């Protein structure tokens, strides 16, 4: 059995997943669905929407690559269908249009600024360049490297993001990835022997078949502490 990875002593590069790690996409997506459904007098519960969102999006992303904006449109229509909400196809753009309003978690700006003083920072995200550009208006930090699904024409947990990131960095030495999704980020990192800090905001419990991350923290502030930034 392979030994568990340790966080490198000489970290040089810290990369982040964006949505769920830095940005509160769950609240943003729910608010968008609620606002649109309210137009029809239709009620959507957050506890019902979010698991459905994960499930539907995962299925769509497993197919051939298409821009994330289109993935969101298809996700909106499929969720509406399953909930028996008669959403017209022409209105499905409400979801990608909402991304610009998805806000960072409260600790995100401060922790990124602290980390940027000590390390090079990067973003590895399952999104397209246009929508990520809208999100970055909420984050003042500059990033040394950005890899999107559009650039590699692939969605995590496929390995393309991580392979491309390593190529641009010139190798994996000194690299730590920080992410909230075990499925999309922790698993591929472990496959590629990249140390990964799991930001387990939702207090998920791993089942026996799921491998443990290099480290687990409840929020970004604790991740920063683990990386030596108080």
What does this structure look like?
Helices cover 43% and strands 11% of the residues. The mean pLDDT is 95. The chain has 10 helices and 6 strands; from the N terminus they run βαααααβαβααβαββα. The protein has helices at 25-38, 46-61, 68-83, 94-98, 108-116, 129-136, 149-152, 160-169, 182-191, 220-226, and strands at 13-16, 120-125, 145-148, 175-179, 196-199, 215-217. It is globular. Helix 2 (46-61) packs across helix 3. The chain has a 6-stranded parallel sheet, with helices on both faces. The chain is an alpha/beta fold and 230 residues long. Helix 6 (129-136) links the parallel strand 2 (120-125) and strand 3.
Query: Which structural category fits the helices and strands?
Result: alpha/beta
**How many helices does DSSP assign?**
10
The number of distinct β-strands equals 6
Distance from N terminus to C terminus (CA atoms, Å) equals 34 Å
Residues in β-strands, percent = 5-15%
Rg calc: 18 Å
Unreliable segments of 5+ consecutive residues = none
Helix content, binned percent: 40-55%
Order of helices and strands: EHHHHHEHEHHEHEEH
Any idea what the shape is?
globular
What is the overall pLDDT average? 95
Strand order within the widest sheet?
Answer: 3-2-1-4-5-6
Largest sheet: 6 strands, parallel
Overview features:
230 residues; alpha/beta; 10 helices; 6 strands; 11% strand; globular
Layout of SSEs?
Layout: E1 13-16, H1 25-38, H2 46-61, H3 68-83, H4 94-98, H5 108-116, E2 120-125, H6 129-136, E3 145-148, H7 149-152, H8 160-169, E4 175-179, H9 182-191, E5 196-199, E6 215-217, H10 220-226
Parallel strand pairs: 1-2, 1-4, 2-3, 4-5, 5-6
